[in-house]
Design goal:
Elements (H helix, E strand, L loop, with lengths): L1 H24 L5 H22 L4 E4 L2 H10 L16 H11 L8 E6 L5 E6 L30 H13 L6 H7 L8 E4 L5 H8 L2 H20 L2 H4 L5 H4 L5 H12 L5 H8 L12 E6 L12 H4 L5 E6 L18 H16 L5
Parallel strand pairs: 4-5, 5-6
Antiparallel strand pairs: 1-6, 2-3
Helix pairs in contact: 5-14
Amino acid sequence: MQRLAMDLRMLSRELSLYLEHQVRVGFFGSGVGLSLILGFSVAYACYYLSSIAKKPQLVTGGESFSRFLQDHCPVVTETYYPTVWCWESRGQTLLRPFITSKPPVQYRNELIKTADGGQISLDWFDNDNSTRYMDASTRPTILLLPGLTGTSKESYILHMIHLSEELGYRMLLLNYLGKIGSKTPLMAAATFSVGWNTFACSDSLEKPLNWLLFNYYLTTCLQSSVNKHRHMFVKQVDMDHVMKAKSIREFDKRFTSVMFGYRTIDDYYTDASPSRRLTSVGIPVLCLNSVDDVFSPSHAIPIETAKQNPNVALVLTSYGGHIGFLEGIWPRQSTYMDRVFKQFVQAMVEHGHELS
């Protein structure tokens, strides 16, 4: 018993000295710490490669469009590797404006007055220094339309302008394409993180966390944009009521649906959902969506409808958020969305005749 007690005291002292040494040298300087870090890193890498990094789902309504994309826009069939430390939907969405760079772009503004007294502001990037298309009359033009509350100064728009400059070009709405069919002067279109069903989008954004992170902020942006021109709307809507809206749905009910002459908010949301007109699109359209996008929930993506139109291709990634699609360790210069945009635009300009 005495021998056992001495052994226990000695073991206790040795353990105390060991722990004291660990505290003194620091956890990360110990073999145990390094082993734990290495083990965690290996486990995380295995999880990331097996569950996060995946090839996108390519859904097309025709075999010819599918082959065309695989030949000339191979990025849609390659594995998308979201930023390893930021792959969750909300993180991708929130961080993208702050992480990605803003390439310098000099616009030429053109203001077009409409017959109803309104005006359309176009920011042109002429790319007069293009060596590939020196004649402006033959230079391909890309029309970029920012999303809700967006402008031509958004980082993702500036990156698309920069990529268009590299290709030699100078700078779409699915509802428009669905209404006009093949009569449009456009040769092709691409959409990114489109909200397919407005009802589903609103429901998702009204969940508590999404409302806190996105909905309320966007509502205040919309209110700010219309309040600048308050005097133009006071005869049609109750602007004080509009400025008290706490969600996008409330804003649309009190302002947007009224200004566009809809009888109810449901009528407006039904008409504003592009999934209804997808079968009528008459030109090649590539639609990139992430199935974890809280702005456009996966159950509302019209996969079966897209299969009915040979002009439509859906590219669905498992991660990417809303206009996020960050990739790489530090995704400052380029995103997966940028690469899809560049390859698809170049494919349509240079090889679009193959789809005729």
